[in-house]
Backbone:
């Protein structure tokens, strides 16, 4: 075959493959954009149907901190399943915002939820904290006309199935540590801690169980075992993977007259 003809054929084939690759990438991008649009197409409408609850617990409350786990766990029942599994990517899950807002005067706890879940959330709170006072209030405003705003977003460094320290592993009350800091705010200073939670599917827990299985399998073979994963960490991953999971956005917002610390 003529070298020029061979080069021309190869160039044409390469060009065809390149065009095909670009078309596939473009189609995937358009499909992803369509999924996002369809999933959140009514986000603004839903945001207008949110309700803010102010939650107050008596100071002499003696309910242990682990009781809150029951409330959080019950929220996993809000997960929406598609009729057919392949349609699940088009389904948006309900979100709830748990907020602690501290000012110079006081510290308040809020829950912002879709109005249709108000009864469910209130019943869960009262079932654990019988003396709680739950009231519907206007959405609190953090910002002032001349205030300086600092913002931070917390995320995970590792895969979701890796454990975080829980209240069982922290010697002091973690909530008391947070409220202690918020109680020291000066006048015209406001700090908010917001945790937006949305029920997640089981893919993260399946990954955790798969990791445990693969790790145990590899470490059972002395020739390839690395023993890099501590047994206690595997146990913690297994414990976490057995619980309901949530997608979480954790945000910190601070407003003050100046940005200086």
Residues:
């Amino acid at each position: 075959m003529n070298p020029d003809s061979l080069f021309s054929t190869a160039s044409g084939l390469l060009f065809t493959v390149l065009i095909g690759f670009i078309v596939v990438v473009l189609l995937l991008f358009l499909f992803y954009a369509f999924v996002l649009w369809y999933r959140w197409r009514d986000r603004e409408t839903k945001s207008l149907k949110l309700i803010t609850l102010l939650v107050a617990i008596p100071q002499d409350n003696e309910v242990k901190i682990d009781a809150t786990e029951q409330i959080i766990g019950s929220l996993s029942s809000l997960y929406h399943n598609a009729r057919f599994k392949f349609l699940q990517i088009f389904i948006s899950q309900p979100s709830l915002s748990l907020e602690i807002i501290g000012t110079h005067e006081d510290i308040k706890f809020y829950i912002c939820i879709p109005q249709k879940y108000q009864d469910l959330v209130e019943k869960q709170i009262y079932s654990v904290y019988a003396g709680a006072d739950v009231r519907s209030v206007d959405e609190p405003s953090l910002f002032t006309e001349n205030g300086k705003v600092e913002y931070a977003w917390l995320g995970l460094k590792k895969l979701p199935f890796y454990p975080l320290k829980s209240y069982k592993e922290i010697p002091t009350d973690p909530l008391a540590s947070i409220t202690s800091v918020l109680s020291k705010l000066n006048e015209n200073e406001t700090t908010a801690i917001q945790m937006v939670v949305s029920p997640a599917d089981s893919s993260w827990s399946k990954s955790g169980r798969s990791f445990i299985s693969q790790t145990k399998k590899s470490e059972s073979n002395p020739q390839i075992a690395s023993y890099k994963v501590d047994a206690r960490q595997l146990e913690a991953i297994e414990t976490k993977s057995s619980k309901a999971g949530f997608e979480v956005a954790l945000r910190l917002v601070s407003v003050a007259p100046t940005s200086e610390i």
Notes: The first helix runs from residue 3 to 39. The chain has seven helices and seven strands. Residues 63-110+142-200+245-256 form one domain.
